[in-house]
What we know:
Blueprint: H1 11-25, H2 29-42, H3 47-60, H4 65-85, H5 90-103, H6 108-120, H7 124-137, H8 142-154, H9 158-171, H10 176-192, H11 202-205, H12 209-221, H13 225-241, H14 246-259, H15 262-275, H16 281-308, H17 313-341, H18 346-358, H19 362-372, H20 379-392
Helix pairs in contact: 1-2, 2-3, 2-5, 4-5, 4-6, 5-6, 6-7, 7-8, 8-9, 9-10, 13-14, 14-15, 15-16, 16-17, 17-18, 18-19, 19-20
Amino acid sequence: MAEKTQDTISRTARELYDKAFAALERNSLDYAIEMFRQCLAIEPNFVTARKFLRASQMKNASGSALRRVMSAAKAAPQLTKAKMAIQKNPAEAMNTCEQVLTDDPKNSPAYLTLAEAAEAGGFPETTILTIEQYLKLNPKDVRTMHWLARTYRAVKNYPAAFETYERILQIHPNDFDAQKAIKDVTAHGAMHGGGWEEAKSYRDVIKNKDEAVALEQQSRVVRAEDMLDNLIKEHLEKLKAEPDHPVLRRELGKLYAQKGDFDTALHYLEALFATEGGSDPSLEREIADVKIRRLETALAAKRKLLETKPANAAALTTEIAGLEKELDAVKLREAERLVERYPNDLMYRFDYACLLMRNGHTNEAVEQFQKSVGQPQKRIASLNYLGQCFQQLGLH
Length: 396
């Protein structure tokens, strides 16, 4: 099955991916991880999303040895469940493995089970990515290197297969299977041509539009402060010549938001939204995201201040509570807007229901959870939350 890209995934998966990446940019890692996982539950062979999911999991992981021990104990039954599901439902098995890796992104058995499930599902690119990640943790596992090399050969990436067999022979020079395979791979590579000398790894071979977009996104995340200032200056100069240019105004809003100047960002984005008569839903969503980031940044600053200046605890605690309430209100409005705009998208209904429940709107949450049970990935969670809502309402 062909690897999915941003151009070929479903609309629902694309929206989840966009939400995940926006959350990743503002360092809301828990939310980013959940959105990436929901996206991959729909499109399991969307390799770019899985790369970003893994990066988010690694960044969010605790270094606590105790937590890793506890995660390993919890993971054992989950991985058993995943192994049992591989043949009948490989996508479900992959999702279970990602749940384990969210708790412990260095869980080697989870990588192997995920790779096995991806192979059973006919997703060789995901198999390769997962084995590569496993080998970073277990660089001398020759048996798994053979598996990786075979998968490279299956997708006709002979240079990468050759390189993998070379690694095996560096560890075990007398490995007969590797010696034989490296000759076969060399012959196939010479026969097929097409970049044998130039291609040095799997990533050199995959040079598609989706990869380029992902790299551009990564560069945006880590763009230096001086680069941002230069870009803002350039856009402001261009805006003097074309003061009504919508693309320039929108880009300025994005750049100021990335810099952390949320008020200026909102000035540009909200003015543009008003000019366009409120007809651009993606711009409306950007504005909501900036408001959320502004509140999250303010909250983080207040919490840090509370740690360093406990003498002001009473006043700071009140301010934090107010900001939390305001943040919940903004998120609730955005979730409600998405449900109204996309009434048949049950993922949005589930998100909205969770926010309603958290903010004490239990009756309204029940209504949304009763609809979100129709989303297979959220059926169990929806039923669980429904039970909690009924308990709060005294309906046993």
